[in-house]
Specification:
single chain; alpha+beta; five-stranded antiparallel β-sheet; binds adenosine monophosphate; HIT family, subunit A; 3 helices; binds zinc ion; 5 strands
């Protein structure tokens, strides 16, 4: 995708602080870090969301994450990390090329868990929860 900044980073047309590369995955430091060491892990193929990502490329991204999370944490002496995808515009995804954020976390950094993003729908009826679970389980 010619006009995708992450494809241009992979191609070397836009500079990045690259920290990892294999056949299907690529990782580099976020230019606007939420914490020291904030790293983005992306598939080399251009796919907008996780929903569009072929399984083998998804596996490659997860494998890269598995390798990189401890390395990123060690590099900045972090106590943990938040690892997340903004999946789709509604979730705040700004760059339409799948990317996982590895954001190092530090004891007492004052930033909440992912749960802090949501107020939640309030109490849900058992029947509604059963229906949703059944719908998810029944589709492939
Ligand atoms: P998202 O909101 O999940 O789409 O996140 C996109 C991320 O890409 C943001 O955290 C940006 O700071 C980051 N970003 C945008 N352009 C670049 C770039 N040229 N190099 C590194 N990170 C970038
Ligand atoms: Zn792209």
């Amino acid at each position: 995708m010619d006009d995708c900044i992450f494809c241009q980073i992979i191609a070397g047309d836009i500079p990045s602080r690259t920290v990892y590369e294999d056949e299907h995955a690529f990782a580099f430091l976020d230019v606007n870090p939420l914490a020291p060491g904030h790293t983005l892990v992306i598939p080399k193929g251009h796919h907008e969301t996780l929903n569009d990502l072929p399984a083998d490329e998804g596996s490659a991204v997860f494998s890269a994450l598995h390798d990189l999370v401890p390395r990123v944490e060690a590099a900045v002496d972090a106590d943990g990390s938040t690892v997340a995808f903004n999946n789709g515009e509604a979730a705040g995804q700004e760059v339409p090329h799948v990317h996982a954020h590895i954001v190092p976390r530090f004891d007492g950094d004052g930033n909440g868990p992912i749960h802090a993003l949501f107020d939640g729908p309030g109490e849900m009826a058992d029947e509604e929860l059963d229906r949703i679970a059944d719908d998810i389980a029944a589709t492939e």
